[in-house]
Amino acid sequence: MKAVNNFAGLNGFVWWVGAVENRVDPLALGRCQVRIFGWHTDDKSLIPTTDLPWAHPMNSINTAKQFQPLEIGDWVLGFFMDGESGQFPIMMGVLPGFAAANTTTSSSVTTSSTDYSSSEEESGT
Amino acid sequence: MASQGILNTRDYDLKSLTLLTSNGVIDFRYIMNEISYHEDLFGGVISGYVMVTESSSYSEFLSFNGNEFLLLTFAKYDDPSLTITKKFRVYKMDNRKLSGNMRTETYTLQFCSEELLLSEQYKIGKSYPNQQISQVIKDICTNHLGISTSRLRIDETYGNYSFVIPNLKPLDAINWLSTYARTADGYNGSTFNGADMIFYENKNGFNFKSLQTLTDGNDVVVYNTYSYDPKNTEQNNLTEEVYNVTTYEILDSYDTLNAINSGMFANQLLSVDILTRKRMTTNFDYEKYWNDSSTGGLNHYPVTNNYQNRFGKKLNETSQATLKLVFSNFDEANNAVVQANPGSVAPNIFAETYIPYRTAQLALANYTRLKISLPGDPNLTIGSVIKFNLLSNDPSGKELNLYYSGFYLVTAVRHMITQKDYKTVLEIAKESVPNKFTNIPTDSPIWKSVVGG
């Protein structure tokens, strides 16, 4: 009998990983525009960086007012406040790693990867 | 009254039932046992099946593999204008059985609109900045499903939104967008009364409409009046028979417990704007909604009376019965920093409007549901409104049932054709009643002693 539809926190925790494409937040809150893997296509003619939803940062409790700005290409892990609708992303933390780009093709499988660390210039005000 | 439906169960013309295969074309009209054609207001696209018995091993020699097309056309025998014609995609064979001398085979071919298979093959990852939801849905239909504009009937929605479609299949994306949509017609200048947009396919094409538009009591076009009367079984009057219901079944009647839990009478939304750190509480009140409604509903009276619980509250006054919590952006446009930086936040999604209303309206739309069988009528389609006259069980016998008679929205249509007959089975629903429910006699001794005590 318990209705969980449209009750944030009871609908499942939808987490994601994405790459920062714009870190210049006009509201100066530390928000970034993040291209989220599997949710936002890599094709920027379909979803330009400027159309990506602003991802809100979730700062550390101990240093809530002091945070290191993210860099273009940083991979971040986060979740959606609105669950599967995916319009309100929150960034929880950065995933350190190495930049890499390659394409592998076999007879029946084609894979490609994108180096987000050099994919976008900073934009915004 | 317009010429509708068939008089005799054989008065239909199955013009084509043709299967296109990679290895040839076959006419199934004379070997089919049964055809079922199904439209559903809440089910997306048209689907159905054809059951066949044959001894020519078509499935082997015509190389059936799930990539066939079926051309189906049927009409009223003497009125070719009353026709359904459509091309379907066959996607599955099941119920396959050998019989007799093991050379006769019976099987069922399941079919659906080609758009369903297309939709399953693709996903949309695309941004639509600052557009009406109706514009976005039109773009998906034309550019991602290849539906011609002549087959689209899309009602305009209110407000502009910025959405990023999160890699959804086209039909899933449309249904997802529908949940946010508010009908332009539902705005009365100060409040919205409609967040009940639905996307469906019927015999005329693909439609995106609000339930309120379909059931507007001030502007409704009644397709036909049908009656159920036990004398139908005598079949003395064939002219009456065409407008008569041969069987009926009540699928859903009042269910107060379910209505409370679904938020139909009352629900509450807590919305939180994390950017401006503001919270808002929005209550849905069925009685206020009913009184504010400009359409008046199909049958002019609400589905409840003035009953109050032991704490003096009516069903529409206990909004916490169904509590919802969402993160929204209702106040961002009022923030001074945001105003100084245009475009720095997404447009308001108006969660406070669409969630409470849609929750109640979709539950309300199906509050009373009936299934009725009629002589076949290829003109009957979902989204139509019919009048159903159900005689009261009162032995005096000529009065209509006070609550189950009235105007209904056709929510599902199944045309069933066999070699012998053609019938149409409807699912119909209504959100109101033609006669007012009696109010509680709170001053009567029995109520005072039993309920009040």
Structure description:
The complex is a heterodimer of chains A (125) and B (453). Chain A is mainly β. Chain A is built from no helices and 7 strands. In chain A, a hairpin with an 8-residue loop joins strand 4 and strand 5. The radius of gyration of chain A is 16 Å and the shape is globular. The C terminus of chain A is likely disordered. Chain B is globular and about 75 Å long. Classes of the chains: A mainly beta (125), B alpha+beta (453). At the A-B interface, loops of A face strand 8, strand 10 and strand 17 of B.
Chart the SSEs and their pairings.
The complex is a heterodimer of chains A (125) and B (453).
Chain A: E1 15-22, E2 32-36, E3 54-57, E4 75-80, E5 89-95, E6 103-105, E7 110-112
Parallel strand pairs in A: 3-5
Antiparallel strand pairs in A: 1-2, 1-4, 2-3, 4-5, 6-7
Chain B: E1 12-21, E2 24-27, E3 32-40, E4 47-54, H1 58-61, E5 68-76, E6 79-99, E7 104-112, H2 114-121, E8 124-131, H3 133-144, E9 152-154, E10 161-168, H4 170-180, E11 197-202, E12 205-210, H5 211-214, E13 222-228, H6 238-241, E14 247-252, H7 256-262, E15 266-273, E16 278-285, H8 286-292, E17 323-327, H9 336-340, H10 351-365, E18 368-375, E19 385-390, E20 406-418, E21 422-430, H11 445-452
Parallel strand pairs in B: 9-12, 13-19, 15-17
Antiparallel strand pairs in B: 1-2, 1-5, 3-4, 3-20, 4-7, 5-6, 6-7, 8-10, 11-12, 14-18, 15-16, 18-21, 19-20, 20-21
Helix pairs in contact in B: 3-4
